[in-house]
Amino acid sequence: RAKSTPAADICFYQARMDAVVRDRRRLADDLRMAPGAGQLSLHYQRQVETGTGRVSGHEALMRWQHPVRGFVSPAEFIPVAEATGLILMLGEWALRTACVQAVAEPRLGKVAVNLSPVQFRQPGLPALVADVLRQTGLPPSRLELEITESTLMQDPARTLEMLREIKSLGVSVAMDDFGTGHSSLATLRAFPFDKIKLDRSFMPEVDSNQQARAILRAVLGIGRGLGIPVLAEGVETSAVLDSLRDEGCAEAQGYLLGRPLPVQALDFPDTSKEAA
Ligand code: C2E
Ligand code: MG
Ligand code: MG
Ligand code: MG
Question: Which residues form the EAL domain (predicted)?
């Protein structure tokens, strides 16, 4: 546009917004069909004990192969799914599929499934978890649920009640992306987490930068004080892994240790823990 007037700018902006809204609506329509159309799958990324190198479990990560758009990243479709409520269906699909695949492949060990804050607004969530375990036959000790700080923010009392119910099934619960939200030390103490996952944004400089190293030490100190093991996310270099080992970080996950892959494409080292 050679010349623009304020009115033209507004029109242009409006048209662009309309396009964005239309695009999201179309994405949501397609997402609704995705499970039935067989376009969803789970990839698994291994989690490793830094001390022994043993595989302690795998995180299940949702993938969407769209017929026209190709691969759509969860960073793009999870927010759409949450805004439209479709996450309830997708989340149940992920939970059920992870349990079925874990039963079929014992070498997955413990599987970690991500839960959205939206799923915690459903009072039936603990019952759903119990049903899926019963229907698939996965031992509860092989399931871990990952929740983020935003889940705890929305209704702490009710969330705590639901977490207790879920844990009473024998399922473990991990705090995901720790360090990116607003949870205080009091939150960590009040909620019955079995694991703290330190967000990957801290990782790249842990081997080289004093501040990053100090944050790692502080989080490990909190974990030790509360008796909760810490897993470091986003480990991409052996220098970072060495630092984690030196500092006594129990577990790690990241491209260095293994990319997320379909279950048939995973390789299971002999050292991996036998499933109970
Ligand atoms: P998350 O739960 O924190 O998962 C870890 C993300 O980090 C994954 O991205 C993983 O592929 C990526 N990652 C792993 N190792 C590395 C590394 O070394 N470097 C870097 N840069 N990244 C690494 P992904 O698969 O794209 O998923 C993004 C987010 O989408 C997840 O973050 C999670 O919040 C959400 N998500 C994925 N699957 C599900 C699901 O089934 N349900 C829900 N509610 N959310 C999901
Ligand atoms: Mg996660
Ligand atoms: Mg994470
Ligand atoms: Mg993340």
Answer: 24-274
